[in-house]
């Protein structure tokens, strides 16, 4: 592993681990824009950032259960219809630090900003697969339990120096409605090295771990990928399972992320001069489910008021409406006058009426993933 040629990064990022580089923006920066700037987008890596020097010779091999394996080059990807999908990427480890406070968990510590919303452009995976002879999803397609595996060119210690990999079901990969992309642009610019230059996968509505960066090959396989990050990581275990009694094979790899929200306009503890506060943050759910509601409280959850929600300023957000970005987060905002001290809480409800758990204890898991418990911050008015 070699960290001598890492790309430059924005100085405001909070570094949670240096090698591999893992960093998130400050809370306030995260909600300064609906589309997260590349600079402020969290960076989650498991090895050194690869360098692709010769874009003309870079290719992705598509192999496995296909009639004829094929190498596709960037010119082939560029020749396919270009799709642009606004989608929120969230690391399953987002908010892990808070989970670790009740009982220690293993993994990189993250505050609430291991999440970002970008406008991704590239070819649809369905078009790429069709290009090599795998048809788009129809009701008669025999899919079995097949998966589409994405393999990177990076080197991860968890894979004993091998590449990062992950897979998604073929039924999702061949479904145009799932909007899975082989993306070459982020916010209208070519991907930068940190985010997967020259080509990465974007699986909207699914934990970030399945959106493989620096794509090297795509394999059609009979069952899900057997790599470390599918089989020995990113699985949700019950609170009763710890490192001495874990049996990894008893759980499925996590795919969709659950409903989540967090307050970004306030830090964990705030000393403020006057009682008027703005409670602003993001809410998002997995699987393309919209945000039905965000409730906020200034008394630790005894009483609630509903926050306003929007994606684009001035345009009211309507969940699951054609006017809203289906795979993207929603900002919420409420104003409140707080007494001397207050515990501010936010919780979201998605369009399937899924809610966030009140306490982190009930969803504690040894790897510290999917902390979606009510987000709480503390305010004290004084001088
Ligand atoms: N792809 C490769 N090749 N290597 C990685 O370490 N990390 C994954 C995913 N894809 C990873 C990867 C994880 S866990 C997340 S959350 C997202 O990339 C982070 O994407 P970002 O760094 O662009 O924010
Ligand atoms: Mo992640």
UniProtKB/TrEMBL annotation:
Span list, region Disordered: 1-19
Ranges of residues in domain Moybdenum cofactor oxidoreductase dimerisation: 252-381
Top-level lineage group: Eukaryota
Keywords in alphabetical order: Metal-binding, Molybdenum, Oxidoreductase
MF terms (GO), sorted A to Z: metal ion binding; sulfite oxidase activity
Cofactor or coenzyme needed: Mo-molybdopterin
Residues annotated as signal peptide: none
Pathway this chain belongs to: Sulfur metabolism; Energy metabolism; sulfur metabolism
Enzyme class: oxidoreductase
One Pfam match: Mo-co_dimer
Full protein name: Sulfite oxidase
The organism of origin for this protein: Cinchona calisaya
Lineage, highest ranks first: Eukaryota, Viridiplantae, Streptophyta, Embryophyta, Tracheophyta
């Amino acid at each position: 592993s070699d960290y001598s040629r890492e790309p430059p990064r924005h100085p405001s990022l909070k570094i949670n681990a240096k090698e591999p580089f893992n960093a998130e923006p400050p809370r306030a920066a995260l909600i300064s824009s609906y589309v997260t700037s590349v600079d402020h987008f969290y960076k989650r890596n498991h090895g050194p950032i690869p360098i692709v020097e010769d874009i003309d010779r870079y290719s992705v091999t598509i192999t496995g259960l296909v009639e004829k394996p094929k190498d596709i080059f960037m010119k082939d990807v560029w020749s396919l219809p270009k799709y642009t999908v606004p989608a929120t990427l969230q690391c399953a480890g987002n908010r892990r630090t808070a989970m670790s406070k009740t009982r220690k968990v293993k993994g990189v510590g993250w505050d609430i900003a291991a999440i970002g919303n970008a406008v991704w452009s590239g070819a649809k995976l369905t078009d790429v697969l069709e290009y090599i002879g795998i048809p788009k999803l129809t009701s008669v397609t025999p899919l079995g339990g097949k998966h589409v595996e994405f393999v990177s060119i990076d080197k991860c210690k968890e894979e004993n120096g091998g590449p990062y990999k992950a897979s998604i079901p073929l039924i999702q990969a061949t479904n145009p409605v799932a909007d899975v992309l082989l993306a070459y642009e982020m916010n209208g610019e070519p991907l930068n090295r940190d985010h997967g230059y020259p080509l990465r996968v974007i699986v909207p509505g699914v934990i970030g771990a399945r959106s493989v960066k620096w794509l090297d090959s795509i394999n059609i396989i009979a069952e899900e990928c057997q790599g470390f990050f599918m089989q020995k990581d990113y699985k949700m275990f019950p609170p009763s399972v710890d490192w001495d009694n874990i049996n990894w094979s008893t759980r499925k790899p996590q795919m969709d992320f659950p409903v989540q929200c967090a307050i970004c306009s306030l830090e964990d503890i705030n000393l403020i001069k006057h009682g008027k506060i703005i409670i602003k943050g993001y809410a998002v759910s997995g699987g393309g489910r919209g945000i039905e509601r965000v409730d906020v409280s200034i008394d630790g959850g005894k009483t609630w008021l509903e926050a306003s929600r929007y994606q684009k300023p001035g345009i009211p957000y309507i969940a699951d409406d054609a006017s809203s970005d289906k795979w993207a987060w929603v900002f919420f905002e409420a104003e409140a006058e707080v007494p001397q001290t207050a515990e501010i809480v936010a919780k979201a409800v998605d369009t399937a009426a899924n809610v966030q758990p009140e306490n982190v204890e009930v969803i504690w898991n040894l790897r510290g993933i999917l902390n979606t418990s009510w987000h709480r911050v503390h305010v004290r008015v004084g001088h």
